[in-house]
Amino acid sequence: MYTLIMATIQSKRSRGYKYWYIVESRRVNGKPRPVVLAYLGKADDLLKRLQGLYQLKLKSYSHGAVCALIDVAAKLNIVDILNKYVKSSRNYVAEKPIRNNITAGITLLLGAIGCVCMPTSKLGWWNWAKTTSVEYLLRCSLIKVDSQHFWDLMDSFPEDAITSAEQEILTRVFEVYKIRTDTLFYDTTNFFTYIDTTNTHSDIAQRGKNKQKRNDLRQVGLAMVVNKEDYIPLFHHSYQGNLQNCSVFREVIERIKTRMQSLGLNLEKHTLVFDRGNNSRKNLSVVKSLGFYYVGALTPYHHKDIIDRAMENMATIGLDDETLAVYREKNIIWEEERTILVFVSDRLKAGQIRGIYQSLDKKEKSLKELQQALVSQKGKKRDREQLEKKIKSIVEDQYLKGVIKWKLIEAEDGKYFLDYRINQEQLLCVEEKLGFRIIMTNRHAWTSQEIITAYYGQSKIEHAFKNMKNPYHLTLKPQYHWTDQKIKVHYFICVIGYLLSSIIWREAKLKAGYPGSLDNLLDMLNNIRLGTILEESKKTGKPKATYKLEEMTEHEKKIMQVLGIENDHNERPKIRNVGVYK
Predict the structure, then answer these.
(1) For burial by CB atoms within 10 Å, which of 68, 145, 367, 378 has the most?
(2) Is 192 within 8 Å of 219 (Cβ atoms)?
(3) Cα separation of 206 and 218, whole Å?
(4) If DSSP codes are grouped into helix, strand and coil, which group holds residue 219?
(5) Number of other CB atoms surrounding residue 69 within 10 Å
(6) Residues contacting residue 575 through CB under 8 Å, at least 6 positions apart
(7) Assign residue 375 a region: left if phi > 0, alpha if psi is -120 to 50, beta otherwise?
(8) Is the dihedral of CA 326, 332, 337, 338 positive or negative?
């Protein structure tokens, strides 16, 4: 037997009008219930559709990412917080400027959302924004938001207000999302700019050792602290590109403590992890005086005695279902007792061996060229002292000391012959001492596994920096500002964008078990689109707009649901004070 279920057309009266629906009777919990299959509208509208008097137009917009970002920003009251610190600028007489009926706070947020979804210049921002649902979500026109709009309202946000604004936003993050922390990771990176050498408007952009190998360009440094679980940035500081990591660490460490205390983080229960580039006797003395627990690293080249002891006294421990040979001791380093761990990183060792053999090949090539030049009949007479100096400059190397043996033989005609060889035994000895890492900590009660796990967590902040250099999402580039204030505000905008993204990623992982990367999550959200259906009458009347999310996969539906943005138009994120100040 088959049960025949037929749909019927039923009406419902609302506000004096009769609306029609296609309804089907279904059993819900054992009881018959009417289920609406489709909304047809008023009878006149239905008749016009049937008569072909309406022309339908469809346009869709990228929706998921901008909706999720605006929703998080609304929960954190970011616009209100930013607007509190806005002051008058040279372009405005009013105390708090508004341009195109938009406040500075919402302008900075729009810049942050743009950095996350599609990094582009401020001039090209609108060309991206008009392909998204951002106007629909904010209920305002953004067509006049151009580079001048951004520059003017960025100019009204003082650089000395960045720390206070960031502090207030993070306080709100801890209140709303109940962030938990125990281990914090500190590191620095730099971003090259195209600021001209003759430009005197910027002191922060300086030449230095660029991590993207663009030493020919001026750069700006960024120091950041993120938490262990979610990579959420808890502190950032932009600084001159020619400063060394050690100097920057000494400058910001006290400010990091102030930030932790203002967020209610107990120093006794938190451990700061930093790399060896931040070490010095003075820095560690400051760290001790501030009461930090820490895990850091030492340079094996400067502590060869520890390496020698470690090579003879390794013990095996279990770490993540693997075994690792580790040497542990307590030692006085820079006038303080520290727990020292030494172990071999296979990945580091493989990289160092590759580097050594590449360097050795280059040195052999240079020595062969010199050897051939010396025996050439057209070769000129050489000064022995200068020739020996040149050979030493070729063979000298931090790791290859004693590997290349050479001697200079004087010929009868006053010329010289170069003889050299590779000391294979010494090369093997060098290889045996590669790959060593030395970790130090004042967490003396921690197990070796806990110390090593904390140190390896340093890769989390490196992952954060990798995200911020992604050319498709989250990147600080392109950066077309050339004054210190604009550069610092631009960096602040980008950090806000990364903060919002990391919270979305945290929610997806925590509530939906999302296993992918932040980059993949943003790609997926960008591909969730909001469709707009316009019904244009051939006679009279304004077009009628209907909004509907495009068909999604079950996985996409689940992500939208856990982020609380599955309703496409009934519950839009509420950003207040787009064009007004409190």
Answers:
(1) 68
(2) yes
(3) 5
(4) strand
(5) 28
(6) 70, 73, 74, 79, 106, 109, 137, 138
(7) alpha
(8) negative
Contact indicator for 421, 402 with CB cutoff of 8 Å: no
**Cα–Cα distance, 132 to 117 (Å, whole number):** 10
Classify 538 as helix, strand or coil: coil
Question: Within 10 A of 570 (CB to CB), how many other CB atoms are there?
Answer: 7
Residue with the larger pLDDT of the pair 346 and 511:
511
Distances (CA, A) of 489 to 202, 231, 481: 14, 21, 10
Distances (CA, A) of 126 to 108, 297, 426: 14, 46, 62
For residues 324 and 343, give the distance between their C-alpha atoms in angstroms, rounded to a whole number. 7
Angle at alpha carbon of residue 201, lines to 195 and 205, rounded to 5°: 45
* Sequential DSSP letters for 541-565: SPPEEEEEEPP--HHHHHHHHHTT-
Q: How many CB atoms lie within 10 A of CB 298?
A: 19
* SS3 at position 568: coil
DSSP 74-135: HHHTHHHHHHHT----TT-SSSS-EETTEEHHHHHHHHHHHHHHS---STTHHHHHTTBSHH
Q: Which residue has the tokens 């760290």?
A: 287
Q: How confident is the model over 286-299, as pLDDT tens digits?
A: 988 898 999 998 88
pTM of the complete model: 0.79
In the predicted model, is pLDDT for residue 466 greater than 80? no
Residue 502 tokens, joined = 């990391």
The pLDDT tens digits of the residues spanning 219-255 come to 888 999 999 888 899 999 998 888 888 899 999 999 9
Structure tokens at 531: 């469709």
Tens digit of each residue's pLDDT (9 = 90 or more) over 253-271: 999 999 999 999 999 999 9
**Residues 110, 69 contacting (CB under 8 angstroms):** no
Asked if residues 526 and 132 have their Cβ atoms less than 8 Å apart, the reply is: no
Three-state SS annotation for 501-524: HHHHHHHHHHHHCCCCCHHHHHHH
- Give a three-class secondary structure readout of 342-384: EEECHHHHHHHHHHHHHHHHHHHHHHHHHHHHHHCCCCCCCCH
The order of strands in the sheet holding 336-344 is 233-240, 219-227, 183-192, 271-273, 293-298, 436-441, 336-344, 322-333, 315-319
Whether omega before 478 lies within 30 degrees of 0, making that bond cis, reads: yes
Give 86-144 pLDDT, tens digit per residue: 887 666 656 678 888 888 899 999 999 998 888 888 888 889 988 998 988 888 888 88
